[in-house]
Amino acid sequence: MKVIESVAEMEAGRAGMAGSVGLVPTMGFLHEGHLSLVRRARAGNEHVVVSIFVNPTQFGPGEDYDRYPRDADRDLQLLEAAGADFVFMPRHWREMYPPGFDDWVEVRGPLVLRLEGAARPGHFRGVTTVVARLFRIVRPHRAYFGQKDAQQVRVIRQMVREQGLPVEIVPMPTVREPDGLAMSSRNVYLSPEERQSALVLPRALELARKMVLEWGLRDADLVRESLEDYLRQKPQVQVEYISIADEETLEELHHSIERPALVLLAARVGATRLIDNTLLVPEGVEVPEGLHQIIEDIKAGMREHGGTGP
Amino acid sequence: MKVIESVAEMEAGRAGMAGSVGLVPTMGFLHEGHLSLVRRARAGNEHVVVSIFVNPTQFGPGEDYDRYPRDADRDLQLLEAAGADFVFMPRHWREMYPPGFDDWVEVRGPLVLRLEGAARPGHFRGVTTVVARLFRIVRPHRAYFGQKDAQQVRVIRQMVREQGLPVEIVPMPTVREPDGLAMSSRNVYLSPEERQSALVLPRALELARKMVLEWGLRDADLVRESLEDYLRQKPQVQVEYISIADEETLEELHHSIERPALVLLAARVGATRLIDNTLLVPEGVEVPEGLHQIIEDIKAGMREHGGTGP
User: Fold this and answer.
1) Interchain CB contact of A230 with B (< 8 Å)
2) B256 touches chain A (CB under 8 A)
């Protein structure tokens, strides 16, 4: 495994690769979610590049850029074991944003204005900019992202489409802790009590799944209000948003769920902001090509993590 | 076991009883629900009287008085086995309503105006009249009623209070078929397909129990709407009402459930009208004296009948 710290070296390294290249963009402090992306990239490509870059432009003022957790030694060990060929970890953010940088890549429209886009102004502009830049440097055939950042996956897809980049975006299911909490590098911020309180997020998602998939309810407003009612009982958790949205456009759904839908949550537990989501495909709703495997994965994941309620 | 067919004989029979008397008023075509009342009466009294009388005054025009199922031979065998001492089965309705009868017993107020009272005008007037008359003939110390007719139990309690009758009203938990359907003499009207469709009633109650007791939701409107949404998906079932009401007064609850509540359903499956209900006592809500055993019984019953959803 080769560790590369400059753009020039990465471009040179890429020039020497024949066959398909898979890229896993990360901000480091890797967990099993990241490693599942690396392993999938490993299985589907001749070369696997993992980038580790805590991208300053996607953090807002007052966010946790300064204290975002870092552990390069551990990350490299994990990546070696997971089968990465190249780890691209720019030694300084100036590598990615050289003086005079003005190559902002931005998508517009409702997709970036809602949810994370509304809660974190400028966030997606930073994400699309750094991902586009990584794509131009690494020129991957495929890039792997976790569904935990469901909106990010869709924003990046729109960016790739608009920029005409020849990269296949491969979303992978959220990996969860044994008790159901979605893995996140930010979970390290949680105190033991907060860690326990945070479980209401996957449990709220499980409630939505029960209502729609088990009980056959179809009223999105009702499911959203039920999640509000559920989370209202948990004073340790400050809800930022509860969304039941079209799986593709993330437009908010009301009344009858007749298309695959995402339930998306953002909440603060203490000082830590967490997000989570799940995909709902009600019985009788046509499943678009490409969602089948994701649905199976989610079912398996939810089963594994109990999912019989709080 | 003595079978008595006239009021005069019943009064004479009663005069010969020393010690406590338990009465189980029924309309015959007995099922396990009735028998559980008889067995409880047997365990708690020196004498057990069961009345079998299809009371015409509690049926409305167009209701099923004419075709209400009857099977006296089987009923008597079952009652003998359950330990009844006296079966009072007036040979004609004129026994109970002699010429010139004008002894109507009626309770007033919100309790009789809602739900069954609204759906079946005059029904409770017929019930309170016949029960009061039975109480005056049999002079029981205790009378046993099934919680399946939850509103009836409360109406009879009000009647007993207002009339100053010295009878303890003992409500007993609804007995269910193995698949969860509440036992009812009217279940015999259901075709095999309707019988299957009817299961959405106990399942809807189970949904309410999950939302409130398992997930901790407290918004009665939300639970009611969820049941509406659930039952709306079942075109075989025409809902008459879905009520989430104060356990005691049956006043409709909105927003926060902070008292024991009943969920009450009435629906038509084909031509057959069915009712069912369950008691909800959310965590943290004070349980009035007398409900403890009922709550335990319901829990046991729901567990027994699966209750893991549809």
Assistant:
1) yes
2) no
Q: Measure B217 CA to nearest chain A CA, in Å.
A: 5
Cβ separation of A217 and B226 shorter than 8 Å?
yes
| Inter-residue contact A106 to A128 (CB < 8 Å) | yes
Q: Which residue among A218, A226, A310 sits closest to B233, beta carbon to beta carbon?
A: A218
The first and second tokens of residue A88, run together, are 């691209």
pLDDT bracket for residue B304 (50, 70, 90): low
Which listed residue (B31, B34, B47, B123) is catalytic? B34
pLDDT at B302 over 80: no
The confidence band for B165, taking pLDDT boundaries of 50, 70 and 90, is: very high
Exposed/middle/buried for B280, CB within 10 Å: 0-12, 13-18, 19+? buried
**What is the pLDDT averaged over residues B130-148?**
98
What average pLDDT does this structure show over A145-154? 98
Q: Does residue B292 have an active-site annotation?
A: no
Contact A218 B210 (CB under 8 A): no
SS3 letters for B71-134?
Answer: CHHHHHHHHHHHCCCEEECCCCHHHHCCCCCCCCCCCCCHHHHCCHHHHCCCHHHHHHHHHHHH
Share of chain B above pLDDT 70, in %: 96
ipTM of the shown complex: 0.75
For chain B, say whether A222 makes contact (Cβ under 8 Å): yes
On the question of pLDDT at B263 being above 70, the answer is: yes
Instruction: Let me know: does B242 contact B275? Beta carbons within 8 Å.
Output: no
DSSP H helical ranges for A164-219: 192-197, 200-209
